[in-house]
Design brief:
alpha/beta, 7 strands, seven-stranded mixed β-sheet, about 190 residues
């Protein structure tokens, strides 16, 4: 089997439309029906549900209180747009943060979640996030662990990384296999 990987000259939001197009094309080629998309404020999410219409699009965003107590970064306007276009929104704790971040903040020490996240960042921020959101979606029951999905994430804002993978639950994280790298920044 041959597949093409696109390397972007630089990371960031300027790659969002190309990333979504690459993901859509590969989903059609492989018969993949579900696409996961990381989004913080919802701008990428809105673009994704529009570009990926006809596919099951699950938007994964971080927990309420991430930036400040009782606040959500994903805007209400974007939430309404995503849901009106059939997108599914998952708001949950980052896989690699949670207790790891609590330990780092309280005791100035790093534990396993921080180490795994930093190790994955060797391949780029988006590569860390696609592994993270696919596991978060599996833990929530929104995706199956016996079906391939496409996961999309980015570096900062927008989307610049897309992969084909088979999600796993968090207790099986080290069994996660990225099947194909569709695109990523050439860092």
């Amino acid at each position: 089997m041959e597949s093409r990987t696109v390397y972007f000259e630089s990371p960031g939001a300027e790659n969002t439309d190309a990333t979504l197009g690459i993901a859509r094309k590969r989903a059609e080629e492989l018969g993949i029906k579900t696409v996961l998309v990381a989004s913080t404020k919802g701008d990428t999410a809105v673009r994704a549900v529009e570009s990926l219409s006809g596919l099951r699009v699950i938007i994964v965003t971080h927990s309420t209180g991430f930036r400040a107590p009782d606040t959500q970064s994903f805007t209400e306007e974007n939430r309404a747009l995503v849901e009106s276009k059939g997108g599914i929104l998952l708001t949950t704790t980052h896989l690699f943060a949670g207790l790891s971040r609590a330990m780092r903040n309280k005791f100035s020490t790093y534990i396993i979640g921080d180490v795994v996240a930093s190790t994955l960042r060797i391949l780029g921020e988006g590569m860390k996030v696609v592994c993270e959101i696919s596991t978060m979606a599996a833990d929530s029951g929104l995706v199956r662990t016996d079906e391939e999905v496409i996961a999309i994430a980015g570096t900062g804002r927008g989307a610049d990384t897309a992969v084909v993978l088979k999600p796993v639950n968090s207790q099986n994280f080290f069994e996660l296999k990225v099947k194909e790298v569709l695109c990523k920044p050439r860092l």
